[in-house]
Amino acid sequence: MTRLSGATPSGRAQLGNYLGAIRQWAREGTDDDLYFVSDMHAMTTAYNPQRLRALSREMLAVLLGSGIKPERVFVQSDIASQLTALTWVLECTCTFGEVARMIQFKEKSAGAKTVRLGLLTYPVLMAADILLPGADEVPVGEDQAQHVELARALARRFNSTYGEAFVVPKAVTPKVAARIRDLAAPERKMAKSARDEAGVVFVLDAPDMIRRKFRRAVTDGFERVEYRPDEQPGVANMLEILSACTGQPPQDVADGIDSYRVLKETTADAVIEELRAVRNRTEDLLADPAELDRIRATGAERAAERGHHRLAAVTRLAGIG
Ligand code: TYM
């Protein structure tokens, strides 16, 4: 069984990425598992190349600092030739309607003056990421589940049209923290590329910064610490974060907390504690560029090796190559 997942360096890793996804990647698994920095996905909207390179490096360090074994990581663009070749085959397996109805595409393209074609086709590249090495399970937060469904549909369609080439993958989302919300605007999800960072906790934020962000978290006028996500999204979000850090259900962590002030302090403490070792390990890695380069180079070789056979089989079945 192979698990695979990726994180896009379109910004700095935030708490939702960590609790909803990255933490799970570090926890379980086998040495067949693959976790990668999806740097090619960060090109779908305007970006700065130097900053992308720096953010890719930081994201790789965060994956390792979160405890993912060095043998399991790589950077997507290091196997760009295989992935883009497979993407073309999959684009010719996918319909326009299928990508046009992706929620993330609709959200990100709404109101934009120009829309990069890559923003539309990005889920097909993501399907290539998943299908190339033959992943069975894809651990992701809720917002990526629809993209994994598309990968699943494309795998089935290719297999039945041209011949068996792909493992049909499935998304795995965590029970809690599958959709962490922005602390300052709990109606939206926490996102690394949010325009306003007041409500976004970054994995590498210093403890006092984390505390400040929780102190300013938006709550409501009920003055009740109860887990009611629809009525009290801000409070429920903090209870979910606390639940993810303590391992107890969100309903239970509310017991004994009698004010919003205590809820904020308790949650901030738990997050600071949860991220402490991750931050320390990540900073050590960032201070050792040679070691990061070495890990990246071996990861690239391993990933290329993994994809080689399936790509050959796919092109043969598709009548090219
Ligand atoms: P990305 O970089 O947006 O997010 C990385 C992971 O974090 C999860 N996540 C969240 N979980 C809970 N609450 C949140 N607020 C939150 N925000 C993000 C995401 O669901 C994701 O699991 N396209 C992907 C990267 C990717 C990928 C892949 C994933 C590229 N190829 C192949 C799986 C398989 C992305 O941009 O994730």
From TrEMBL:
InterPro entries the UniProt entry points to: aa-tRNA-synth_Ic (IPR002305), Rossmann-like_a/b/a_fold (IPR014729), Trp-tRNA-ligase (IPR002306), Trp-tRNA_synthetase (IPR050203)
One record GO biological process: tryptophanyl-tRNA aminoacylation
GO CC terms: cytosol
Annotated SUPFAM superfamilies: Nucleotidylyl transferase
One matching Pfam family: tRNA-synt_1b
Keyword Nucleotide-binding recorded: yes
Catalytic EC class: ligase
GO MF entry, a single one: ATP binding
Keywords tagged on the record: Aminoacyl-tRNA synthetase, ATP-binding, Ligase, Nucleotide-binding, Protein biosynthesis
Enzyme nomenclature, EC number: 6.1.1.2
Keyword Cell membrane: no
Matching NCBIfam families: trpS
Family: Belongs to the class-I aminoacyl-tRNA synthetase family.
Record-given protein name: Tryptophan--tRNA ligase
Native source species: Kibdelosporangium phytohabitans
Classification of source organism: Bacteria, Bacillati, Actinomycetota, Actinomycetes, Pseudonocardiales
